[in-house]
């Protein structure tokens, strides 16, 4: 461990312009690094070059082309420009959140003698399977990719045991565990608003919510399937979808064709409004099978809303007994929703909040700093009191 302030340069691709779990994680970790006495610098792709000082540290945006069919993702493709900026910044540590198009930075770091870590934000074989690759081919391709990744970086950071397994499988010995977290002050049960709930569901209806990017790897159609299965059983229910992406138009058409009570809100820019929506729901659906943590689901739990998650993801590890898991089909998701609803409302909401309280950002920041062999040199000032009514 070093007791000196470090310049920690972070690189990321596939960051949505306004929302998303990766964007949230980068922001909160940057804020934590800065509060701990270090100098975080984030480099991400964007429409044009910008250089700003923010609450999460310095943020540099380099021009990057749009990735077709992804609904807004951009990537850093100009290696020479990125390498020149890295040389100019002279980082003490490098942190990379893209194991594919940015893996070359591991070689750059070795030549520059900069300790570098790669953060695994998704399982490679899980993503490949969601794009239709057969399981045996997905596993073979993932093992090859992960072997190269493990060799390229001093350390690989995994946020859960689930994410770590694919590196353990190939015998990687440089893997460390560092969880993500949730802002327990920003997300809390007191955000629950009966008026907002009544806007989306009648008193006898179960209100389901899904906050997700509407893209193939997130499997958002499973939420509509679960709603339809519940309606077939005679359960009165409605679904609110917060999020945007390339599948939105197709999902909206499907809901219209089948007469499903689904409200598509698109991207909800106001985080307080999103929190209120999450707090109003009876159950949050998280159908993504390749999730290695699931920040949106954890935020819902912090609001007191239990989660039904895909058994194929890391979320069963995160939600514990406070939620329920589904094997993947519509009926299994409907079964899991019914299982949660059998519990008393106060019981299930208290359990969700209590589980979320196990995942604060303070512990996440310290774990990531430890992965960088960096100490906490300073402490953030006192946080405001918990709002009245917070469990």
3D structure, described in words:
By secondary structure, this protein is α/β, with parallel strands linked by helices. The chain has 2 domains: 7-181 and 360-371, Glycogen Phosphorylase B (Rossmann fold, 3-Layer(aba) Sandwich), CATH 3.40.50.2000; 189-356, 3-Layer(aba) Sandwich (Rossmann fold), CATH 3.40.50. The protein has 15 helices and 14 strands. The strands form 2 sheets. It has an 8-stranded mixed β-sheet, with helices on both faces. A 6-stranded parallel β-sheet has the order 11-10-9-12-13-14, with helices on both faces. It is globular. It starts with 6 loop residues before the first strand and ends in a 20-residue tail after the last helix.
Distance, first to last CA? 37 Å
What portion of the residues fall into strands of 2 or more residues?
A: 15-25%
Q: What value does the average pLDDT take?
A: 91
- Spans with pLDDT under 50 lasting ≥5 residues? 380-391
- In one word, what is the shape? globular
CATH class of the largest domain: Alpha Beta
Radius of gyration: 21 Å
- What is the CATH superfamily label of the largest domain? Glycogen Phosphorylase B
Total domain count: 2
Secondary structure tally, helices = 15
Biggest β-sheet: strands ordered side by side in the sheet: 3-4-2-1-5-6-7-8
Order of helices and strands: EHEEEHEHEHHEHEHEHEHEHEHEHEHHH
- Known CATH architecture of the largest domain: 3-Layer(aba) Sandwich
Residue share in helices? Answer: 25-40%
């Amino acid at each position: 461990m070093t007791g000196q302030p470090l310049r920690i340069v972070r690189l990321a691709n596939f960051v949505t312009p306004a929302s998303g779990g990766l964007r949230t994680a980068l922001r909160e970790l940057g804020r934590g690094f800065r509060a701990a006495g270090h100098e975080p610098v984030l480099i991400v792709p964007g429409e044009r070059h910008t250089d700003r000082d923010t609450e999460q540290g310095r943020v540099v945006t380099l021009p990057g082309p749009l990735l077709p069919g992804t609904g807004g993702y951009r990537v850093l493709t100009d290696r020479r420009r990125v390498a020149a900026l890295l040389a100019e910044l002279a980082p003490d540590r490098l942190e990379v959140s893209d194991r594919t198009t940015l893996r070359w930075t591991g070689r750059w770091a070795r030549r520059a003698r900069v300790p570098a870590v790669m953060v695994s934000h998704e399982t490679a074989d899980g993503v490949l399977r969601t794009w239709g690759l057969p399981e045996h081919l997905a596993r073979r391709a993932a093992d090859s990719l992960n072997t190269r990744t493990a060799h390229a970086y001093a350390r690989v950071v995994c946020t859960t045991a689930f994410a770590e397994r694919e590196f353990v499988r190939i015998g990687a010995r440089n893997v460390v565990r560092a969880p993500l977290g949730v802002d327990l002050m920003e997300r809390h049960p007191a955000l629950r608003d009966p008026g907002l709930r009544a806007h989306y569901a009648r008193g006898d209806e179960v209100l389901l919510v899904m906050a997700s990017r509407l893209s193939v790897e997130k499997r958002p159609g499973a939420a509509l399937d679960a709603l339809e299965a519940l309606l077939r059983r005679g359960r009165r229910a409605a679904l609110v979808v917060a999020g945007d992406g390339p599948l939105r138009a197709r999902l909206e058409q499907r809901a219209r064709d089948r007469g499903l009570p689904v409200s598509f809100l698109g991207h909800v820019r106001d985080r307080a409004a999103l929190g209120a929506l999450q707090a109003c729901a009876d159950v949050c659906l998280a159908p993504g099978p390749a999730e290695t943590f699931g920040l949106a689901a954890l935020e819902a739990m912090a609001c007191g809303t239990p989660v039904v998650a895909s058994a194929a993801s890391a979320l069963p590890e995160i939600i514990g007994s406070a939620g329920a898991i589904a094997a993947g089909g519509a009926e299994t998701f409907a079964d899991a929703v019914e299982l949660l609803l059998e519990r008393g409302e106060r019981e299930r909401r208290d359990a969700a909040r209590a589980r979320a309280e196990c995942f604060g950002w303070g512990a996440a920041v310290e774990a990531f700093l430890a992965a960088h062999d960096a100490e906490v040199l300073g402490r953030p000032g006192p946080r405001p009191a918990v709002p009245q009514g917070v469990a």
